[in-house]
UniProtKB/TrEMBL annotation:
InterPro entries, alphabetized: Aminoacid_DH-like_N_sf, Glu/Leu/Phe/Val/Trp_DH_C, NAD(P)-bd_dom_sf
Keywords per UniProt: NAD, Oxidoreductase
GO cellular component, one term: mitochondrion
A Pfam family the protein falls into: ELFV_dehydrog
Gene expressing this chain: GDH1
Similarity-based family: Belongs to the Glu/Leu/Phe/Val dehydrogenases family.
An example Gene Ontology molecular-function term: glutamate dehydrogenase (NAD+) activity
GO biological process: one example: L-glutamate catabolic process
Protein name stated in the entry: Glutamate dehydrogenase (NADP(+)) gdh1
Organism: Trichoglossum hirsutum
Domain of life assignment: Eukaryota
Domain Glutamate/phenylalanine/leucine/valine/L-tryptophan dehydrogenase C-terminal: 173-437
Amino acid sequence: MNAQFLPKAEYPQPLFGMFLVISSEFRGFHLRFRDIARGGIRIVKSRNREAYSINARSLFDENYNLANTQQRKNKDIPEGGSKGVILLDDQHQDKAKVAFEKYIDSILDLLLPPTSPGIKDPIVDLHGEPEILFMGPDENTADLVDWATEHARKRGAPWWKSFFTGKSPKLGGIPHDAYGMTTLSVREFVLGIQRKLNLNPSSLKKMQTGGPDGDLGSNEILLSNEKYTSIVDGSGVLVDPNGIDHDELTRLAKKREMISAFDASKLSPKGYRVLIDEMNVKLPTGEVVLNGMTFRNTFHLRGGHLCDLFVPCGGRPEAIDLSTVSKIIVDGKSTIPYIVEGANLFITQDAKLRLEKAGCILFKDASANKGGVTSSSLEVLASLSFDDKSFIENMCVRGDGTPPPFYINYVMEVQEVIKRNAALEFEAIWREHQRTGKPRSTISDELSWAITKLDEELQSTDLWNNDGLRRSVLRDALPVLLLDRVGLDTIIERVSINHSSKPLSYLPLPPRERQLVTGGGCFYN
């Protein structure tokens, strides 16, 4: 659908394209801010009818805000931002796989020529241009992306290799969870705070939402060395003021298990665990928790006294907003000194500004958790640069589980790019805050829009026709391993063809220049 009907007062950033997909099991959208855009697909589940009604009312706004955040996160990569959200019907909470398959198949119907048997008339296409979407895993879809990749190949999509990222290594994917891609960027901001303020990580008390069962949460546990005092996940709340046993947390993170599987004998006398289905639980302090679910849902608003550092790695959007932020501000001062927002939209922008005004050092999601999109973009770049035969030889893990040497080295190069980009952005935001006094959350947005605007301005020039400049920029921007293996001329040819003669839209901003910058349709299934 053409998204121009959206009121600008409520949706100030115009969408490029919008897909609406409706089925008996779900309803869903796919929204994008640029012709060539990237973003994950998430499935939203509802615990009961009331939760479903709330999720249904906020479905489009949540999708829009997630895509908007993705647009700002994607400043380091050539694609714009997009997001897909699938809301399961309240009577079909067990149909996630069916809903995902119908959603993907419906979108493929709109992206591919109508060659399916039984279709008498072509689909009305008011856009009139070839379209390609880049998707990736998100909440409740990580185990479904392999199916989407294989299905796109079966349906004859020429871009099947790049349709979904985060797929298994046997299909040439670089799974974010296996290599901690998103966590690597979050960690750079945590390490940056420690470095700037000379903080000892082993004595830094830490609270985390999103537990050892999740992608971001598990890798944050595995890569960090702070003193965990509280963790909140889908099963409940785990607290120990003396420090949660890190070996036991590591065990859970490696097995991807919730804190409900934590060995409670490893808690100190002051430690406790409250699960969501428990009631009337007496804490070591003497307080009685009447309802475990309510306690879990609101713990992040009361756990500030237990922590110095808060890293949200999971949780629903707007968990802290203007109406609740006062609960972690006492006498005008934030009870949490440092926050690195790993989870998307966990804190609303106005709440972030209140926290910063109250003295909290806060780095928002669009800056902190962009590692995954960088990994996805470079994964796509490799898939577009290789032909099918070379892609299988260099990027697909063999049947015995042995990865090709190129794959191993390419993953390592991607990890270094993620850490470098995150470190550059941390330094830029820290420096500009000291220079101007502006809130870091505001600087993060200004930096994102400045880079995005520069990208748009470059695309409207004829710089691409300057062969010398083009080749110089590409040599600086593209991964060295890919240049050595494929060659610059071949990459330019293949990437340009795959992007409908819009090659500049797929060229990442080189590190040197980055430092200086401080349509669709409607388908019913």
